Amino acid sequence: MMPRLLALLLLLAWPPSSQPAPPTCYSRMLSLSREVTGDFQSLQAVKPSELCVRYLPTLYLDIHNYCVLAKLRDFVASSQCWRVAQVDALKDKVRKLYTIMNSFCRRDLVFLSDDCNALEYPIPVTTVLPDGQK
Length: 134
Prior knowledge:
Residues 1-20 form the signal peptide. By secondary structure, this protein is mainly alpha-helical. Helix content is 54%, strand content 0%. It has a domain at 24-112. The model has no long low-confidence stretch (mean pLDDT 77).
C-alpha cells in the first residue's frame, strides 16, 4: 500500500508540462503562417539589395482566406532567388505550410473570405486609443 501511495504522490508532485496538449492542425497552420510572414518581412529588411528579393511574390498570409493556397503555390514555384539560402529556407517552410493545409489539415480549414487583394495589400493593424488619450 505504501509504495503505491508514494508513487501517486510523486506523480501528483511532478511539475506540469509547459504545453498541456499537443498542437492541433489549426494551431500548427496558424503558427507556421505567422512564422513564414515574419521570415519574409525579415528577408525584405535584411536583403533589400538582392534584386531577386524585390521581385518575389509578397507573403502576407491569412489562412482563413481561400486565395492563400494559390499564393503559397505561386511563391514556391517562383524561380527568383534560387541562389539565396534564406529564400530556399523560406520556400521550404512555405512548401511545408502548403502541404499541411492541402493534405493533413484540409478538413480543419474554414475559409472566411476569398479576397485575393487582401493578401497583396494587407490592411495595417492600428491601435486606436480610447478618447482623451494621446
